[in-house]
Design brief:
The longest helix is centred in the last third of the chain and has 24 residues. The strands form five sheets. This protein has a five-stranded mixed beta sheet, with no helix packed on it. It has a four-stranded mixed beta sheet with strand order 4-3-1-5, with no helix packed on it. It starts with a strand and ends with a strand. Helix 2 packs across helix 10 and helix 4 runs parallel beside helix 5. The chain is of the alpha/beta class and 404 residues long. The protein is built from twelve helices and 18 strands.
C-alpha cells in the first residue's frame, strides 16, 4: 500500500534549513520518492495524509541506553530477571511513543537487549530498532563491576574469551568501560583508567579482526587518548577532555556521545519546567547529586570544546525512562551550545552513523526506511517543540497517532 505524506515542512536531518513544498511518498516500508507534486498515477489508490502546517523529522535515536537505567535500580529493589526484561520492553515501547525509533544499547542484563531486538524486529511487539552490545566489558575493581549489566575479566586471554562469547550471542558492537565513571565507588572515578595495555590490545585486536565497532566509556583525557589510539568507534561521556584528546578524536573520525544528562540531573542544572519535573520524579541520592555537580563544569567544557572543534556528536542519554531521558538529552545539547538543527542531526543522521545504519536510517531520503516523526511545531525554532508530537511512523507504518 502506498502512503503519501502531503506537503509537510521537512527537516531532513542533513540540510541546514527546513524544506517546504514537497511530499513524501512511501511504498511498503521505504521512502520511494520526495516529490514537489505527486502525479495522478502516484496518488491513485494511495492513502493521502494532509500534513500542511506540520513538521516532519527523521525518527530519533538514543545511542547510549541500557534500556533500563542502572540509576533506576533504587526504585526497583529485589527485581527479578523476568521483571527486568518486562520493564525494559515497556520502556522501549514508551520510547517509541515519543519518537525514539532506534536505540543503541551499551550494556544490559542477561542479553535482554538482544531478546527485545528480535522481538521488535519480528513484529511480536511494536518498539524501536535495537543495536545491542550485550554486557559492557569491565575489569575487577572496574567501573560498574557490581552492576548486572557488566561482564568483568582480567588480562588479555580473559577478555578474548568473553568477547568471543559476546559475538556468539549475536551482539552488534562491543562496549568497553575503559575508565571510572561520574557515579561509582571511591576507587571508581572518571580520572581512573582501568585497562592495561595487553587487555586493550586483546579487545581491539578481536574487534578489528572480526569487524566489530567498540564504544568506549572514557571519563578523562588520558583514557580517551588510549581509546582513540586503539581504534575506538565512539567515546562515551568524555566528562573531561583536553585539546590533544579532541584533536585525536577529530583526526580519527571518532564519534562523541557526551551523555550530558548524567551531570545535569540536579536542581542547579535544571533550566526548564520539564527538566525540573524530571529531577523531581527521578531524584538522585545525595552522594550522586554531589558528584554530578562536581563534574558538570568540566563536562560542559569538554562538550563545547568538541563542538567547536567539529567532532561528530551523537545523542545518547545514559538514563531513563527512555521516553523522558532521550528527549531531555536532545534539549541539553542545545542548552550547552548546539543549534536546534544540529541537535536534530545529532539525534538522527549522526546517531545512525554511530550505529552503522546511516545508509538505511537517520535522514529523510529516497530509498531509506520511513522512520518519521510528525510534529505540530517547528523544532528548528525551539528545540522544545520536539515534544509537540502528532504522529510516529516506523517502517512506513503509523505507530503513534496523538489524535487517536
Amino acid at each position: 500500500m502506498r502512503l503519501i505524506l502531503f506537503n509537510p515542512t521537512i527537516i531532513d536531518g542533513q540540510s541546514n534549513e527546513p524544506i517546504e513544498g514537497y511530499s513524501i511518498i512511501i511504498d511498503n516500508n521505504r521512502i520511494s520518492k520526495i516529490s514537489m507534486s505527486p502525479s495522478r498515477t502516484e496518488t491513485k489508490g494511495a492513502t493521502l495524509v494532509d500534513l500542511h502546517g506540520f513538521f516532519v523529522i527523521p525518527g530519533l535515536f538514543d545511542t547510549h541506553t541500557h534500556l533500563v537505567s542502572p540509576l533506576s535500580d533504587v526504585f526497583h529493589p529485589n527485581e527479578t530477571t523476568v521483571a527486568r526484561y518486562i520493564r525494559a520492553g515497556k520502556e522501549c515501547m514508551d520510547g517509541l511513543s515519543v519518537g525514539i525509533t532506534s536505540v543503541r544499547a551499551v550494556g544490559t542484563h542477561n542479553y535482554l537487549d538482544l531478546a527485545w531486538k528480535r522481538s521488535f524486529a519480528n513484529n511480536i511487539f511494536s518498539g524501536p530498532r535495537i543495536f545491542g552490545s550485550g554486557y559492557a566489558l569491565t575489569t575487577t575493581a572496574g567501573h560498574a563491576v557490581e552492576k548486572e549489566i557488566t561482564y568483568a575479566s582480567d588480562g588479555g586471554p580473559g577478555f578474548r574469551k568473553i568477547i568471543r562469547e559476546q559475538l556468539k550471542e549475536g551482539v552488534d558492537h562491543l562496549k568497553l568501560l575503559m575508565s571510572g565513571g561520574c557515579f561509582g565507588d571511591r576507587w571508581d572515578s572518571p580520572a581512573d583508567t582501568h585497562f592495561m595495555s595487553d587487555e586493550i590490545e586483546s579487545v581491539f585486536g578481536i574487534a578489528q579482526q572480526r569487524g566489530y565497532k567498540v564504544a568506549v566509556h572514557a571519563g578523562s583525557p588520558e583514557s580517551t587518548k588510549l581509546a582513540v589510539k586503539a581504534g575506538a568507534h565512539s567515546i562515551e561521556h568524555g566528562y573531561s577532555l583536553d585539546e590533544e584528546s579532541v584533536d585525536l578524536m577529530l583526526r580519527n573520525n571518532t564519534y562523541y556521545v557526551p551523555t550530558l544528562l548524567i551531570t545535569h540531573m540536579t536542581n542547579e542544572a535544571a533550566l526548564t519546567p520539564y527538566h525540573r519535573n524530571y529531577i523531581t520524579q527521578w531524584p538522585l541520592p545525595v552522594n550522586l547529586l554531589e558528584r554530578a555537580n562536581t563534574n558538570r563544569t568540566a563536562h560542559c567544557s569538554a562538550f563545547k570544546m568538541a563542538l567547536e572543534a567539529g567532532v561528530k556528536i551523537a545523542a545518547g542519554s545514559d538514563a531513563g525512562p527512555m521516553k523522558d531521558a532521550s528527549i531531555l538529552e536532545i534539549e541539553l545539547l542545545v542548552q550547552n551550545g548546539m543549534s536546534p538543527m544540529n541537535a536534530i542531526k545529532a539525534a538522527t543522521l549522526t546517531s545512525a552513523e554511530v550505529c552503522g545504519a546511516n545508509s538505511e536510517l537517520g535522514s529523510i531520503e529516497e530509498g531509506k526506511f520511513a522512520d518519521l516523526v510528525i510534529l505540530r511545531k517547528n523544532p528548528a525554532e525551539a528545540i522544545g517543540n520536539i515534544r509537540s508530537l502528532h504522529q510516529v511512523y516506523k517502517n512506513g507504518k503509523l505507530e503513534i497517532d496523538e489524535n487517536q
